[in-house]
Automatic annotation (TrEMBL):
Membrane topology: Multi-pass membrane protein
EC number: 3.4.21.105
Protein name, as recorded: Rhomboid-like protease
GO biological process: proteolysis
Enzyme class: hydrolase
Length: 223
C-alpha cells in the first residue's frame, strides 16, 4: 500500500474514491491493479494470486498470464470509471483466475481414464489438488462477499468485469495452445482458430468501446 502524493489528497488511497474526470492524469487508471484498501485486502489478494497465478502461468506462460492480467484490469477500471465516474480499489483477478484455473483442470480431467477421473476427484495428490481447489473457491467467494459488505471502497462491479474479461482472454490462449499442439490443419482446427479469434476480437472490442465512451464522457465534463 502506498500513496501517490503524500502532501495531497491522493487517488486510490485505502479505497478512497476520487472523480477521475476532474484530473488529466489518466495513467493513474493502471494503479488500481495494485492498490489495496487495507492489510487484510492486500494479504488475501497476494495469497490468491500466488496460488492461481502459478497454475495459470505453468499452463500458458508468464507473458500470456501478464497480458491477461493487465488487459482485464484496464478494461474493468475503465468500466468502473464510466459507471460511477470514480476510480477506487478494483481490478480483482480472483474471479477470473479461479474460473480459468478450473477450466484448465477440467481439460486435464478429460484426458484421464474413468479410474483416473475417480482418483482425480478424491485423491488430492493424484488430482493435483482439484478437490482442495474447490474448497479454496468456496473460501474465496465467501471472502469476496464479506469484503463487499464491509469494505465499501472496494468496487466490486469492476472486479466482476475483470473476472469475465480474464476468462474470455484465457479461452483465447487455451485455443492458441491447442493449435500449436496439432500438426495438421483440419476442419476442427479451423473451427478452433475461428473461436480463438472471436474471443480475442471480443475482448479488444470491449476495451476499445470503453476507451471511446470514457473519453467522450470526459469531454462533456466541465473541469
Amino acid at each position: 500500500m502506498f500513496t501517490l502524493r503524500p502532501h495531497q489528497k491522493v487517488l486510490f488511497n485505502f479505497g478512497q474514491l476520487y472523480p477521475i474526470y476532474t484530473k488529466s492524469e489518466f495513467w493513474r487508471l493502471l494503479l488500481s491493479l495494485e492498490q489495496h484498501k487495507n492489510e487484510t485486502h492486500l494479504f488475501f489478494s497476494l495469497l490468491f494470486k500466488m496460488h492461481f497465478f502459478s497454475f495459470i502461468e505453468h499452463n500458458i506462460g508468464f507473458k500470456n498470464t501478464m497480458l491477461i492480467y493487465f488487459m482485464s484490469g484496464i478494461s474493468s477500471t475503465l468500466f468502473q470509471a464510466i459507471v460511477s465516474q470514480q476510480v477506487g480499489v478494483c481490478g480483482s483477478f480472483h474471479v477470473g483466475a479461479i474460473g480459468y484455473a478450473l477450466y484448465l483442470q477440467q481439460q486435464m480431467l478429460q484426458k484421464c481414464s474413468a479410474q483416473q477421473q475417480l482418483q482425480f476427484y478424491f485423491d488430492l495428490q493424484v488430482s493435483q489438488d482439484y478437490g482442495l481447489t474447490l474448497i479454496k473457491v468456496a473460501i474465496v467467494l465467501s471472502v469476496m462477499y464479506i469484503t463487499s459488505l464491509k469494505f465499501h471502497g472496494i468496487l466490486m462491479i469492476g472486479s466482476l468485469l475483470f473476472g469475465i474479461q480474464c476468462m474470455i482472454l484465457g479461452q483465447y490462449f487455451s485455443y492458441e495452445q491447442k493449435k500449436q499442439q496439432q500438426l495438421q490443419l483440419t476442419n476442427s482446427t479451423k473451427q478452433t482458430q475461428l473461436i480463438k479469434y472471436i474471443y480475442l476480437g471480443g475482448s479488444i472490442v470491449v476495451i476499445i468501446t470503453e476507451l471511446i465512451v470514457f473519453f467522450q464522457l470526459k469531454n462533456h465534463i466541465e473541469i
